[in-house]
Write a structure and sequence with these properties.
Elements (H helix, E strand, L loop, with lengths): L9 H32 L1 H6 L18 H65 L1
């Protein structure tokens, strides 16, 4: 915690803590959650290897030339690559949805924290208005 000058009264210390220190900590935590999201879903690595075969499953063409075996192996390799691309795209999409959700929730937490004093005062004033 940053320690402002000891001659500042307690109200100004609270204002500094509430509107400067804690928002910095919230933004730092928010940034860590966003980094974790990209790391957890491996979004960069999945996009780099988008057209790689699923689990590295490639057929061997063998020696010599047999048109039927060549076509069968080629088709199997293409299916493996398409399957890998589909699965990787689904995981990337889920990761991006989680990223956007984390972005939204982090913004909401920061906004609520900044507005919290006004919310508390409004709640007290509303409660006083009801009881009278």
């Amino acid at each position: 915690m940053l320690n402002p000058s000891p001659k500042i009264n307690i109200f100004l210390r609270w204002v500094f803590w509430h509107f400067v220190e804690v928002p910095k900590a919230i933004i730092l935590g928010w940034k860590n959650f966003l980094k974790f999201n990209f790391s957890y879903f491996s979004i960069g690595a999945l996009l780099k290897s988008l057209l790689s075969p699923w689990k590295g499953d490639l057929g061997d063409y063998g020696r010599g030339f047999d048109a039927g075996k060549y076509f069968y192996t080629f088709l199997g390799n293409m299916i493996s690559r398409v399957l890998g691309a589909i699965i990787r795209l689904v995981i990337v999409c889920v990761g991006l949805v989680c990223f956007v959700f984390t972005l939204f929730v982090g913004f909401l937490v920061l906004l609520i924290w900044i507005c919290l004093p006004a919310i508390i005062v409004a709640g007290f004033l509303y409660a006083i208005g009801i009881s009278t």
